[in-house]
Amino acid sequence: MEFSEFLKDDVPYVNLWTRFAVLCEVRELSLHINHREHLYLDGLPLVSQHLKTLDLHGVGLQETFLDFSSCPALEDLKMKYCEINVHKISSCALKRLSIIYCQSNLNYQVRVCTPCIISLELDDFSDNDNACENCVAYNDGSNKCVLLGGISNAIQMELISQYDIFVFTRDLKQCPTFSKLKTLLLNEYWCVAPDLDPLACILKNSPVLEKLTLQLFYTGGDCVEMKGSYSSMERSSAISEHLKIVEVKFHAIDKRVHKVLKFLCTFSIQMDTDWWDDLVREVDAKDASNASQEESDDDGFLD
């Protein structure tokens, strides 16, 4: 179902149609509201033995709507441009969770309890003041690692953020092992620390990782894509021996991209481009030039 606009009197009917679709034992349910305001669904949980995919866009979610204990077949949940005002998102069967451009007006953390999760996409989930700090994930009740610990069983994971998320920063101090993770996409948030510690931490704790994608930009547009592979001759013990594909995407070569590419070199990752060696030499030359300039500036200051 898709609506480009609605009136206040339409809301009960949309809720009724949604419940009727569930009663008809649909396997996929999509509700898209393309309007400047959210359409609030009633707060009662869905009950279905057949629903496998739920796709919500532009709706308001409240009370116990996101309690899927009565939806044992639900595997895919997508929420985009939604207002999520619930205490908990819970499902014993959910495998793929996507939360994109959503917000919450709550002054407490939303608990995400999804023990079977294998794929998480989390992009710009915010409240009025903070980004994603109100989102907490658990698998086993542990409170050691708040978000990362709750998705440590993921096989495929995309972590995209435009902010310095406190939850991620705290979790990295006790980073869990992603023992099943095979495909990982990270954006530039994970590559801005001086020593790239967040990126190094994730790689170190992903022992079976096969594909790594680094997306070093926030906005769309044309980008350069470099592909590489892990050198079998000079493998590093600090990274998965199963790593086969490395992709680095960026708009243009800049200092940040230089740093990431040099970092990958330390793990014996070879980029499959004709100009890779020239780029490495260029990076080294720029670093040497910058170091020389800093020394010169320091000498001038002392004089």
Question: Could you walk me through the main structural features you see in this protein, from its secondary elements to its overall organization?
Answer:
- By secondary structure, this protein is an alpha/beta fold.
- It is 22% helix and 27% strand.
- The chain has 5 helices and 18 strands.
- It has a 12-stranded mixed β-sheet, with helices on one face. Strands 3-5-7 form a 3-stranded parallel β-sheet, with no helix packed on it.
- Strand 1 (2-3), helix 1 and strand 2 (28-33) form a beta-alpha-beta unit.
- The longest helix has 27 residues, at 276-302.
- The chain starts with a strand and ends with a helix.
- Residues 127-146 have low confidence and may be disordered.
Question: What characteristics describe this protein?
Answer:
303 residues, alpha/beta, three-stranded parallel β-sheet, 5 helices, 27% strand, elongated
